[in-house]
Amino acid sequence: MCLCRINRPGLPYRTAGCWQSAAQWAAPAARTGRADTADHRHPIGLAGTCAPPHGDLRFSGGTGCIAAAEYSALLQLALQQGPLFVVPAAQLACLAPALAVVLALPAEQQLLIVPLQVAGAAALEGLLLLAVPPTVPDYIPRYAPVLEALAQRVALLLEQQRLLASSRQQTEQVAMLTDLARIATGMLNEHQMLGEATERLRRVRDYNHVEVYLLNSEGNELVLLAQAGTHHGTPPGLRQPISMGIIGRTVRHARVQRIDNVRGDTDYISGSAETHSELCVPILAGGRVLGVLNLESPQVAGFSGDDEALLVTAADILGGHD
After folding, report:
1. For tag attachment on the chain, is the N or C end more exposed, with fewer CB atoms within 10 Å?
2. 237, 224 Cβ separation under 8 angstroms
């Protein structure tokens, strides 16, 4: 049985207990509805769960990634088709190609998609994905009550984990911002202060790479003063005209730039082959741009609105230091 999960960005579900429980519930529940031994050649496979809006895909066979667009496509289909519906492997390859590659369903298999929704709640917690054989024509009516009950239980567990993770995340964010304020106000050496600040920012959500650029005295170039993360090839003191790149655009417009796929942005200047998304936040003081916080991720759509809000607050703290 292939077991996997897709995390919400910034909310890593590190405890796999609910997925193991889901697998245990699915197997006996499926067996209770079988009327003949032939069905035993086609056991239910708990292929995975899909949670909004995107994130890392972890499962027993490896790792992968699904973009927000793929989740949205599956969600739209769920809303159109009803509580239980089947997607053939060939259709899945067109609808959600990244997910299809990771799940690697045989051509004769189908994907049964069940919305994960807590009873009485308006929002979905995600989608339950199950590999099913096409040779059982009455599969959905036979197993619908069991699958709907399973989906509600898994949704409840997801909701509980999400709320717990959210509470922990908020505590970690408050601690980080407090540390950032302490660092910004307690050090006279600007380079040392920015170095500690970038490292503290990187750790709060395990960001891949964080950089701080400040404008030069003429206001026409950005200078890299501090960085933390995986890119070690960019030398400190690197200068970039504000007329170039996404960070330059951030300065010119004095607005946050959140790019889900940098490969499609004509202003993007490649600094690492691994980078797929970027979040640039202007550091402001009195309406004047002082510099830019630049974050990069190897994932497509690697940053959320929560990330943006957190980094805007962090930039305000750094701007206030000036």
Report:
1. N
2. yes
